[in-house]
Design a protein that fits this description.
heterodimer; A: mainly alpha; 5 helices; 75% helix; elongated; disordered C terminus; B: mainly alpha; two-stranded antiparallel sheet
């Protein structure tokens, strides 16, 4: 399938906003414990970067730059991280999900759990979007194939 | 009890969920490692729940566990808690044992399928959500767990997409099951708007004060009741179960019938006895018992006409759950004990039957009762296991079905005598009749699958491997053990569970702090905490004999001979058309074994009008089933608003 070149304005805008979306998303994840937002919202913001890639560079580029397998594994790893951090409370004589300071002053378990949620949502939503975009892609491909098949007859 | 044991409920739930996540990561590289993780996590969950047996069941403690240490402040429970009393643990034991057996069975049963990492991930998530549901002390978490349970169950129902109707069955389950989940959510929202809390114990404490003055609470009760009823596949929702079971893998059928329906039963018990404490009001009693009795009877007659092994078992499954709900509605200690006992037994024997059906399907590739036959010659060990299960579900002594059904008859009959109420006596007769029909139906299955002529195509069928028979033997042994020692079951399982239901203040105080219930004058409980006993009274026995005679008389009157010869001829053509219709009884059968499906043609003939109505009613269209669900919700709401 030949890649359709997108409009240059769309491409530049996508390139401009992509790092902004990613950085802002990460900001919301990492400051989830002290400011509005949190892991879920931040994760969705980071995941929206893939839509910008799709809009600016098309479906082929999305497939080239994201590995679905890796994202799927990351999602699972994030889930495992969340449970393990939550279980830390149990094995230090406190309750499951208990919020306590881990090492020194800066690291609370709730912050870590929040980050794990952000990581999970980011990978999960990106995976979902890739799946949805690939169905769009298939539809376009079919149409083009049909057109190609139809061409000689014309 | 040492303090670390407090963590066991959450560790049991989390071992299943963590197992699900690790399996999905590991099994993509090595299926053996994935299987090992799955086996480890179900064994750990079983171990944690069994370890709680002594403190909760024997010592009568109630374990309350606040996630993140967010304990109630100033009499308001804001955090999420797990509260494990004897009732929760009773259902927790049922769940973990069934999950353990189903997982063991899956290893060999599923090994020809692809996408196995997905199967085990979904399976463990389903198990974890069900365990979370029964151990939760927070109403909203109950809803979350119900949602996880429904969606994983739907995905697993459609797991073998190559089966005809797999996606259709799953879609029906999804659409109509969502109706139930929505009912639960609306009920929770209404409850929260009135009582401003989601904690089960606090709701139980605040309920008596506000109830009666509030119509909203009556509506909330209606929504929650029908929501949990959907999860138990009660009467207007039963076609879902049949369509889902027929296409699901056998290990998942075990989960749906043995575990998911029990969640509905648990929800209804928790709702009527602890949250709303209205089980002893005649309206609620009639409502619950009525729904149970109708499910019990309609489903057993539907099972009578099935030509698919697992569809037939599915209808029996709802029929047996109907028994449980029937006696739960009686609001007596004996009834509740009988219901819990039968719920446990149902998981055991119906699990066994589904696994044998799976074994037959695994070896022959067919579930069609009209094509199978004579398998006892090729699969004698599976046949023996099936016979144990069939004898249990039909209520033959000394298997467990007899012990619990005996208690059910006693409970319904006592309720009838105690309240001088003909309704409960009718229910008792209905229960007896259902048991007879169950036996008849299983004679049919035994005859058409395991005995009779062996078709040529199945002459090379082999016995299933030991790895599949072992889980079945576990269940078979449990069938015999719980049937032979009903007094031990009563002492160690039923009495603690029933006393936990009877003692609401203890449940409230365990979560909210000592004295909370006394301050709000929470009543002692709906039922008296009598020791559950299997009483034997000659007068009751005589009256039971009388009621059996009545049942026989009813059948005899219905089948009275009036120009029978003429009807017989007209019936043959009529039955042919009804019998071979897909959603009523299965696919069109070309070869029909003598004595198999038509073993009870005389009975079917006499009931043909009833079967014709049922045939039209089970249209197989999801719109119709949704409509029945909506009608049921409307009916329950009407009853609740006008009478509660």
């Amino acid at each position: 399938m030949k890649l359709k070149k997108k409009n240059v304005i769309v491409r530049c805008a996508a390139d401009l906003f992509l790092p902004l979306a990613a950085v802002f998303g990460c900001y919301v994840v990492f400051h989830g414990n002290t400011s509005p937002g949190g892991g879920f919202q931040g994760g969705v913001l980071v995941a929206s970067a893939i839509l910008l890639v799709y809009l600016g560079h098309g479906a082929g580029q999305v497939k080239g730059s994201f590995s679905e397998k890796l994202l799927h594994s990351s999602e699972t790893i994030a889930e495992i991280m969340y449970v393990l951090i939550a279980l830390l409370g149990v094995f230090t004589g406190l309750n499951f999900c208990f919020n306590f300071v881990l090492f020194g002053k800066q690291l609370e378990t709730s912050v870590l759990m929040n980050d794990a949620v952000g990581y999970h949502v980011m990978a999960g939503i990106t995976c979902l979007l890739i799946m949805m975009l690939s169905t769009l892609d298939r539809g376009e491909g079919k149409e083009e194939n049909q057109r190609e098949e139809g061409d000689p007859e014309c | 009890m040492n303090t670390f044991m407090q963590n066991f409920p959450i560790l049991a739930i989390m071992s299943l969920f963590l197992g699900a996540f690790i399996t999905s990561l590991v099994a993509r590289h090595s299926q053996k490692a994935g299987n090992f993780i799955s086996a480890l996590s179900v064994t750990l969950a079983l171990g944690f729940i069994l370890a709680l047996f002594k403190p909760v069941m024997l010592d009568g403690q109630i374990i309350t566990y606040w996630l993140g240490g967010w304990e109630p402040v100033a009499g308001w429970a804001i955090g999420i808690c797990l509260e494990v009393d004897a009732l929760s643990l009773f259902f927790g034991l049922i769940v973990t044992v069934a999950v353990f057996v189903s997982c063991l069975y899956s290893f060999t049963y599923m090994n020809h399928d692809d996408a196995l990492p997905n199967y085990y991930t979904l399976f463990l998530m389903l198990s974890g959500s069900v365990l979370g549901l029964v151990l939760s002390g927070d109403l909203f978490n109950v809803f979350v767990m119900i949602e996880i349970m429904t969606f994983t169950a739907v995905a697993l129902t459609a797991f073998r997409t190559s089966y005809e109707g797999a996606l259709e069955g799953a879609f029906k389950y999804l659409a109509v099951g969502s109706l139930g989940s929505t009912g639960v959510l609306v009920g929770i929202a209404l409850l929260y708007s009135q009582l401003h809390t989601l904690n089960l114990a606090q709701i139980a404490a605040l309920m008596p004060v506000t109830q009666g003055s509030s119509v909203v609470l009556a509506i909330a009760f209606g929504f929650l009741f029908i929501g949990f009823g959907t999860k138990a596949f009660l009467f207007p929702f039963h076609p879902l179960a049949a369509d889902a079971h027929a296409v699901a893998p056998a290990s998942i059928s075990l989960m749906i019938s043995g575990v998911l329906t029990k969640c509905g039963v648990y929800g209804i018990i928790r709702l009527t006895y602890i949250l709303f404490q209205n089980a002893n009001r005649p309206v609620v009693s009639y409502l619950v018992t009525g729904f149970g009795a109708v499910s019990m009877f309609v489903c057993v007659t539907m099972a009578f006409n099935q030509h698919n092994f697992k569809r037939l078992l599915a209808f029996h499954s709802i029929s047996q759950v109907g028994y449980v709900i029937t006696v739960v509605g009686l609001s007596s200690a004996l009834g509740l004990g009988a219901g819990l006992y039968h719920a446990m037994n149902h998981t055991i024997f119906k699990g066994l039957l589904f696994l044998t059906a799976g074994a037959v399907q695994h070896q022959t590739g067919s579930l069609d009762l009209d094509r199978l036959g004579g398998l006892s010659k090729r699969m004698p060990k599976t046949t023996a296991l099936f016979l144990i299960g069939a004898a249990s579900i039909s209520g033959l002594p000394p298997f467990n079905g007899f012990a619990s059904k005996w208690m059910i008859y006693q409970a319904t009959f006592n309720a009838g005598l105690l309240h001088h109420n003909l309704f409960y006596l009718a229910v008792c007769v209905c229960a007896l009749l259902t048991s007879v029909l169950t036996l008849a139906s299983f004679i049919k299955v035994t005859q058409s699958v395991f005995f009779g002529q062996l078709p040529k195509e199945y002459e090379q069928v082999e016995e299933v491997p030991l790895a599949m028979r072992l889980p079945m033997w576990i269940l078979a042994v449990l069938c015999v053990v719980t049937g032979l020692f009903p007094s031990l079951v009563q002492t160690y399982l039923l009495t603690p569970a029933v006393s936990a239901i009877a003692n609401i203040p203890a449940y409230v105080d365990a979560a909210m702090g000592a004295g909370y219930a006394a301050d709000r004058s929470v009543p002692g409980g709906v039922i008296a905490s009598l020791p559950v006993t299997n009483t034997w009274t000659p007068t009751a026995w005589l009256a039971l004999l009388f009621s059996v005679t009545c049942a026989v008389a009813i059948v005899a009157i219905l089948g009275s001979p009036k120009d029978r010869q003429h009807e017989y001829i007209s019936q043959m053509g009529e039955e042919e058309s009804a019998k071979y219709d897909s959603f009523f009884s299965g696919e069109q059968a070309v070869y029909s074994q003598v004595g198999g499906s038509d073993l009870f043609w005389g009975f079917k003939h006499n009931w043909r009008k009833y079967f014709a109505v049922m045939h039209n009613w089970h249209s197989g269209i999801v719109n119709d089933y949704t409509l029945y669900g909506v009608a049921a919700i409307a009916f329950v709401l009407l009853v609740c608003v006008t009478t509660l």
